[in-house]
Design a protein that fits this description.
The complex is a heterodimer of chains A (249) and B (258). Chain A contains 8 helices and 9 strands. Chain A has 249 residues and is of the alpha/beta class. In chain A, strands 5-6-7-3-8-9 form a 6-stranded mixed β-sheet, sandwiched between helices. In chain A, a hairpin with a 2-residue loop joins strand 8 and strand 9. In chain A, helix 3 packs across helix 4, helix 3 packs across helix 5 and helix 4 packs across helix 5. Chain A is globular, with a radius of gyration of 20 Å. Chain B is globular. Chain B is mainly α. In chain B, helix 3 packs across helix 9. The chains are: A alpha/beta (249), B mainly alpha (258). At the A-B interface, strand 4 and helix 3 of A face helix 1, helix 4 and helix 11 of B.
Chain lengths: 249, 258
């Protein structure tokens, strides 16, 4: 059934250009502009190759792999931040992303002002912003600092606020990138509990992580990626065991 | 992705960004908003000194002539400046959340528009009292000119912002280009001082068209020359469409490069 899918990546590849040659000459620039072409790249490389992933509604899927294996690229493709080079990425439902924590924050604005701004970037309307504000403040739980400019926050406080905004936004699909390691023990537990609760209510989760323990407890399925390709996919424990074993070996 | 959501759905974001731009700009500054008025006024005093006393441009109420064009120029050049850094400034949002990038450019332009409108209100009153001694009928055309001005600013911002993502050279070239544009646009002299045989060529510049229209309406207190008005609508509309097309063509790549 196609209509109980939440995320559908079909034969996706993503090519990046590494701009090593830092500048093109003016003549090249004009020629490229005329031909409507991109600047030449020294090394095109495929961050993702032939990637297929279907996530059903209400499913929790983990993406495992070493740094640079393409986990974050996959999340950005699903989030619509990157356009796939080939293949197609479809999502069904509102997507919330926690890819770079605190990315939308402006240091000069207070926590409260930043909540509104961040929410607006995620596409919330004015009325939704008003309705969500208190819930976010409660979740972040940083006390009076909510009225202080974010530049005076500790990194843990920033992370709390960012996580709170992202998860308090109404969404059907949540993409998390390595962010469960933020804040102190209590906040980590709170985030974890929130995710368990969210998943139990039928929310869809895609998590990129190294933290096998969390992944085993949250997800039912996992994929293991190496150099932009899926090398293993299936039950979370089997994949996590294999991934873990490869570390030891 | 996000197919059902249009720019209209991001109204709240545009509002928040404009509000943020203004808050960040004016907080912890004693004179705050007065600076937007004060800076151009200081510049105008300098221009008056040079071009009234030294170069001697012979126009009645030269200060009124300057007032009717300088603020428009100031708006355009600060929009153009903003275009080069708005996208880089928001690089980390662009890399982690999918949203229409146009919003960033639009909110930069709208922030400056709010400032311009406040300045314009003062200018309209000052010119009516001290220059015309009455309320000129031509003022009814001011909203149309402001609209043209906004469209021109956005039309130039879009391709420039795109270019600035790919090439740092924009940062280096822009100050000189703006300086050149300042002299090639009738800000401190009227377009009528340009030699007859260069007139047509000169007025091909949409900046010159717009400034001349403003001077006709604000300084001369006359209805604009309609052929010029028509040409301005046409050229500014073309620039805006081209600018948007360029931006749209490249915007999918912004997240990868920033």
């Amino acid at each position: 059934m196609a209509n109980d899918l939440a995320v559908d990546c079909a034969a996706v590849s993503k090519r990046f250009y590494i701009y090593e040659r830092s500048h093109a000459s003016l003549r090249q620039l004009f020629i490229q502009a005329a031909l409507r072409r991109l600047p030449p790249a020294d090394r095109p490389y495929f961050a993702i190759t032939d990637f297929n992933l279907q996530v059903r509604r209400g499913e929790a899927v983990a993406i495992l792999g070493h740094n640079g294996c393409g986990k974050s690229t996959v999340l950005r493709l699903i989030a619509g931040v990157y356009a796939p080079t080939t293949g197609s990425v479809r999502t069904y439902g509102r997507v919330a992303t926690v890819i770079e924590l605190g990315a939308g924050f402006h240091p000069e604005l207070t926590g409260s002002e930043n909540i509104r701004l961040y929410g607006a970037i995620l596409g919330l309307h004015r009325s939704e912003l008003d309705a969500r504000h208190d819930a976010v403040v409660a979740f972040a739980d940083i006390g009076n600092f909510i009225e202080t400019p974010v530049k005076y926050y500790s990194s843990g406080m920033q992370a709390r606020l960012a996580f709170a905004v992202a998860v308090c936004v109404e969404h059907e699909i949540l993409l998390l990138d390595e962010v469960l390691a933020v804040g102190d023990e209590a906040f980590r537990r709170k985030c974890f509990d929130h995710l368990v609760h969210y998943h139990a209510r039928g929310g869809t989760l895609v998590i990129a992580s190294h933290d096998l323990d969390t992944v085993r407890r949250l997800c039912s399925r996992a994929i293991w990626m190496q150099q932009g390709r899926i090398v293993m996919s299936g039950d979370v424990h089997q994949v996590a065991d294999a991934y873990h074993a490869s570390h030891l070996g | 992705m996000n197919a059902g959501r249009s720019l209209f759905d991001y109204q709240a974001l545009i509002q928040s960004l404009v509000l943020r731009n203004l808050t960040v700009k004016y907080q912890r500054s004693v004179l705050g908003f007065l600076w937007t008025l004060l800076n151009p006024l200081i510049m105008i005093v300098v221009l008056i000194t040079v071009f009234k006393l030294v170069i001697r441009i012979d126009l009645p109420h030269y200060w009124a002539f300057l007032l009717s064009g300088y603020f428009v120029w100031n708006f355009l050049s600060s929009c153009i400046n903003a275009a080069t850094y708005t996208l880089t400034e928001h690089a980390h949002i662009t890399r982690s959340i999918a949203f229409p990038k146009e919003v960033l450019v639009l909110s930069a332009a709208l922030t400056r528009l709010l400032e311009f409108l406040a300045e314009l209100a003062v200018i309209l009153v000052v010119l009516a009292i001290f220059h015309h001694g009455r309320l000129p009928v031509s003022y009814v055309l001011v909203p149309a000119l402001v609209l043209l001005q906004l469209i021109l600013a956005i039309g130039v911002q879009m391709p420039l912002a795109t270019l600035a993502v790919f090439y740092k050279d924009v940062d280096h070239a822009l100050p000189v280009l703006l300086m050149a544009m300042f002299y090639l646009t009738p800000v401190f002299y009227p377009a009528s001082m340009i030699p007859e045989r260069f007139q047509t060529l000169y007025l091909l510049n949409p900046f010159a068209q717009l400034l001349t229209l403003y001077q006709q309406v604000l300084y001369q207190g006359q209805l604009p020359s309609w052929p010029l008005f028509g040409v301005a609508c046409l050229s500014i509309g073309t620039i805006a469409l081209l600018g948007l097309a360029i931006f749209n063509h490249f915007k999918a790549l912004f997240a990868e490069i920033l």
